[in-house]
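yo

u said u wanted the structure for the complex thing, so here. seqs first:
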Amino acid sequence: MMAMARTLSRLRQDRSGLAGLSIVALFFLVSIAVWAGWLGQDWSAADGARWEGPGPAHWFGTNVLGQDIFERAVYSVRTAFEIGLVVALLSTVLGAALGAVAGWRGNTWIDGAITWLKGVLDAIPFYLFVAAVAFALRGAPWAMHLAMVATFWTTTARLVRAEVLKIRSLDYVRSARAIGLPGAVILARHVLPNTTHILLVQGTIAFVAAIKTEVVLSFLGLGVQDGVSWGLMLAESTQEVLAGHFGNFIAASGMLFLLLLGLNLLADAMQDALDPKQAAL
Amino acid sequence: MRFTAGKLLHGLLLILGVTFLSFLLMVWFGPDQTYSLIGKNASAEEIASVRHQLGYDQPFFARYFEYLRELVTLDLGTSNASGEAVRSLLARTLPVSLALMIPGFVLGNLLGIALGLAAAQHRGRWPDRLITGFSVSGMSLSFLVIIIGMQALLCTPYGLDLFPVRGWRVDSFASYLQYATVPSLSLILVALGYNTRFYRAVFIEEYGRDHIRTARAFGASTTEILWKHVLRNSLVPVITRFMFSIPLVVISGSLLIESYFGIPGIGLATFEAITSGDQPVLKAVVGLTAVAFVLLQAVTDTLYRLVDPRVT
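structre next:
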């Protein structure tokens, strides 16, 4: 409890962290509003002329089909949160589970097998792997998510494993063992909760990586299949920029940058506030 | 000796894993090439003979072991898509990618080291805040946004219009600079935020050590502390980051940048091989990347021992 209060007070004093939190919260509210049907619902309506300039009717102009660019960028907030949340959550859970098992059974064959799997995934160039998975499952809308989860868990697992290896030799864990608690209970109730700081920070970093990867995959034609995303808007803009139409590029890259900045600042602040090593200083 | 044998076994298992996974994904579940190789209205016999030629009628493990055998004997075959020998494809594309990626990769790391060092030396004061803010902003920029932005800024009449928009017609150093500058600047920018942050953390840790305080107390100069203590002791993490980025940067990084700028390098060739299911090309690229990865690990281990006598 003490540690929690200290963490919160440290987080409150971190101005850039608060700025990051506000940005992320704002985007989250927008994504909820889109999801609930209050915002961005006209993203596919072609109610303008081709490549209209910015104006009161279309704040960032229109795209090649006459669709409102701002409306599309707002709707894409929902797409970004869907991808970011799913990938961050699943890859963190997978990383925590495999990392905890590897650490708890440190230096056994299970640990060796998990470490080997991490090594294999790390040795395949990332975009190649993601492109291969996305292509092998072509047509499946979740191919991109699966590919990212399959690669993003390795860093989390590595950090959790190291932490669990450290924790498992602490006195309180030895005592729990001595009174005969089953390993699974000790791991779930007394060890994993002490890795929360790693999971929160890594989850945020995975969120950032997922949104960034979506952009590249959508440009390569392997990302979002239907709907709209900042990646698809940027892919559209690659031709438009050469012809002097900057609406798609500015709207998509501006919002993308703001959300990523917010998440990065938040991750940094959480790292500082939650790191037990910092607490000692 | 036992150490080396362990490393060798580890490397072999890693290569087996990488080749198995990529075989499974890219070949077994990859695209079927039968119908792109035969004309319309092919007879059942023709289809069967093409499938036999491609090995599609073989069971899973027979195909996987054939894949391994070809990799071990460096019998790389010819591209199914273009008919070009894979060896000559590699010889044609790899130098392009290296020429494209190395300057940006090296400069991105050197600049990151310089900025990280400057931030660590002024920890908590305005230069540090400025550099940290810059690095977080850099980390928040998408690779694609950087590329499009650089292109608009440097290659179009809406910006400075100094360089060609895309392509790769390089026959002299001047033309190399013409085509490689914008991609290289994009590469530096995309990596700089992450590099700066990483190196800053490394240097801050070194500056915080007790022996640095002791050296200061004994009157060692700032330069002496920097070169003799901080930089020397930071070599292990610096080497690790640098070495392990090489295969990933050259293949992964070149994939996007080459397909964007239309540069005929290994990244573009590999991407085309994935989308067309060109098994011989994929086999060569993925297999050789895995081997390069394991070799780099061995080289890195040797470097550790050279720079740090504590590593055994």
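The interface with chain A takes residues 13-14, 17-18, 21-22, 25-26, 29-31, 136-137, 139-145, 148-149, 151-152, 156, 158, 165, 247-248, 251-252, 255-256, 259-260, 270-271, 274-275, 285-286, 289-290, 293-294 of chain B (CB under 8 Å). The mean pLDDT of chain B is 84.
cya
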